[in-house]
Amino acid sequence: MPASARRSRTRSGRRCGMVTRHDVTGAGGLRLAAWEYGTSAGPGAATPTGAGAPARTGADRSAQADARAAAGVAAAADKAVPDGGGEPRLVAPRPSEEAPGGQPPGVLLLHGELGLASHWAATARHLAPRYRAVALDQRGHGHSGRPAGPCTPEAYVQDALATVEHLGLGPVTVVGHSMGALTAWRCAVRRPDLVAAVVLCDMRASAVGEAAQREWAEWLASWPLPFATLDDARQWFGVDDPRADPPDPVRGDFFAEVMSEREDGWRPAYEAAHLLRSREHWIRDAHWDELAQVRCPALVVRGPAGELGRAEAQEMVRVLPRGSYAEIADAGHLAPWERPEVWAEVLDRFVGEAVAAREAAGSA
């Protein structure tokens, strides 16, 4: 299908407050929902409404999620990341050798296995005055289609690259959290012409292993579904879940946002079986060889309480040909949501330097 015909599939009727839903055709013809944020976007504006709209999610209904989204705009774009005092330590990437991309540089935001595109609302709104910021509901999640078969890592990569090409985002910075980071660095390896930089937040390069997969399956099975209310979901994930130790309201909000209203109550906007099948394709593998093939600037981000240990993160930086490192103090796996102002500062500096270096190289 020609690009002009594909672009006509953008649902202008689902545009509100400068947040636009784009329909993208992913691997195997699966329909994907990508959300582009503009400078005047208002909290909650991204959600489709009216006849034929998907079931409401916690993101559509959560006032707390809206507050978090608005808070992300507050970080100043030119504020330097402190080197000490417990704040992140960031090593500037070496200059890019790729040509500039023309109009506002693109940023594609990829959520993890348990996330949705709407989790990136605060980050996208913060970036929108300077970049084309797009968040993708990955296959099997949110408002994107549910594949009939298992989701392979290759399908996720094809979906992300299709989004970049469909929306003309390249050369793009791809920001990935957890599994989204795995997709980000694989996109950089597959299409270095489209991917100019990557941000890899709390994703290990070593193999996760079978034991972790069993523990994850048991945890998913322990969710007391359905929840009668979103407040019940926040309470369970933020306090009652044994994994919420210590109690964490940010965690409660994060998982409430993925809940979708059904006839019997609130359930996640994805299926546990889909998540487990998806993980089966990569949990046994280490990814060091892939990282060594990432030629663009790459920032590894972690929180001290996250899943990615400091030693492994620093080894990832060493293996990445143009790697750099940021550590967000007092944060864990959900660092972008636990410390949104610091996360915004880290992102501003890395993306800004990568874009400036690329433009300088292009004009030399």
TrEMBL record:
<dbReference type="GO" id="GO:0016787">
    <property type="term" value="F:hydrolase activity"/>
</dbReference>
<feature type="region of interest" description="Disordered">
    <location>
        <begin position="45"/>
        <end position="105"/>
    </location>
</feature>
<keyword id="KW-0378">Hydrolase</keyword>
<dbReference type="InterPro" id="IPR000639">
    <property type="entry name" value="Epox_hydrolase-like"/>
</dbReference>
<protein>
    <submittedName>
        <fullName>Putative hydrolase</fullName>
    </submittedName>
</protein>
<feature type="compositionally biased region" description="Low complexity">
    <location>
        <begin position="45"/>
        <end position="79"/>
    </location>
</feature>
<dbReference type="Pfam" id="PF12697">
    <property type="entry name" value="Abhydrolase_6"/>
</dbReference>
<dbReference type="InterPro" id="IPR050228">
    <property type="entry name" value="Carboxylesterase_BioH"/>
</dbReference>
<dbReference type="InterPro" id="IPR029058">
    <property type="entry name" value="AB_hydrolase_fold"/>
</dbReference>
<feature type="domain" description="AB hydrolase-1">
    <location>
        <begin position="107"/>
        <end position="345"/>
    </location>
</feature>
<dbReference type="InterPro" id="IPR000073">
    <property type="entry name" value="AB_hydrolase_1"/>
</dbReference>
